[in-house]
């Protein structure tokens, strides 16, 4: 995730942190909730800063592993996790050179994602830039925007369309909506 990225990776990075909240109140009792999500967005014109306790670049495996207190910041978007593994194409440059063509980013260890008033927490996450999907999963995946809270165990977002699905994994999806958060005309 070093700048500059290839055009495809830059376009995917703009939407890689899609986890916005636009679920309808009528779906609160469903075992699975599906809706269009606004999305947390990275900006093409802002630098990406990555901090971690350790970085191991394995060019022969086309991977870079950031471990220990990983923090990624771009503009108003922040991603924090215990570990982050960036997988990139063999012919797509390298992380050290700043021109990697990123295929997938795996994060684990108390994943936290924030942009503006939107937040998401999970145990693990996968950002697949080829399929343009984001999956956050864990015992308890929590999404919030202000006082609106959505809880499940697996969130799947198709970044291209903004379609999202929150699964309960055997239990029930829980949604708490603040009536004051509704837009008035």
What are the key terms here?
OstA-like_N; LptA/OstA family protein; signal; LPS_export_LptA; single chain; disordered N terminus; 185 residues
Structural write-up:
With 185 residues, the protein is mostly beta strands. It has a single domain (7-181), classed as lipopolysaccharide transport protein A fold (Sandwich), CATH 2.60.450. The chain has one helix spanning 7-15; strands at 32-36, 49-51, 54-58, 63-74, 77-88, 102-115, 118-128, 133-145, 148-158, 163-167, 174-176. A hairpin with a 2-residue loop joins β6 (102-115) and β7. The radius of gyration is 17 Å and the shape is elongated. It starts with 6 loop residues before the first helix and ends in a 9-residue tail after the last strand.
Describe the structure concisely for a colleague.
By secondary structure, the chain is mostly beta strands.
What would you call the shape?
A: elongated
Percent strand equals: over 45%
The largest sheet, given as strand count, sense and whether it forms a barrel, is: 11 strands, antiparallel
**Helix-strand sequence:** HEEEEEEEEEEE
Oligomer: single chain
At the fourth level of CATH, the homologous superfamily is Lipopolysaccharide (LPS) transport protein A like domain
SS element count, helices: 1
The percentage helix is: under 10%
- Summing up helix and strand content along with how strands pair, one would put the structural category as mainly beta
Ranges where pLDDT stays below 50 over 5 or more residues in a row are: 1-42
Question: Care to count the β-strands?
Answer: 11
- By CATH reckoning, the class would read Mainly Beta
Structurally, the number of domains stands at 1
What gap, in angstroms, lies between the N and C termini?
41 Å
What's the gyration radius in Å? Answer: 17 Å
Keywords: Signal
Protein name: LptA/OstA family protein
Pfam families: LptD_N
InterPro entries: LPS_export_LptA (IPR052037), OstA-like_N (IPR005653)
């Amino acid at each position: 995730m070093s700048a500059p990225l290839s055009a495809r990776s830059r376009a995917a990075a703009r939407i890689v942190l899609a986890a916005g909240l636009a679920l309808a109140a009528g779906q609160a009792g469903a075992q699975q909730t599906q809706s269009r999500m606004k999305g947390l967005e990275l900006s093409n014109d802002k630098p990406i800063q990555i901090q971690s306790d350790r970085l191991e670049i394995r060019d022969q495996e086309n991977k870079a592993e950031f471990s220990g207190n990983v923090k990624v910041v771009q503009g108003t978007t922040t991603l924090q996790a215990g570990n982050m593994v960036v997988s990139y194409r063999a012919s797509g440059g390298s992380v050290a050179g700043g021109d990697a063509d990123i295929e997938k980013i795996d994060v684990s260890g108390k994943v936290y994602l924030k942009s503006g008033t939107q937040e998401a927490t999970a145990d693990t996450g996968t950002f697949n830039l080829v399929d343009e999907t984001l999956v956050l999963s864990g015992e308890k995946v929590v999404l919030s925007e202000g006082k609106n809270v959505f809880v499940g165990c697996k969130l799947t977002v198709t970044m291209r369309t903004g379609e999202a699905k929150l699964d309960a994994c055997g239990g029930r999806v829980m949604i708490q909506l603040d009536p004051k958060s509704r837009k008035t005309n």
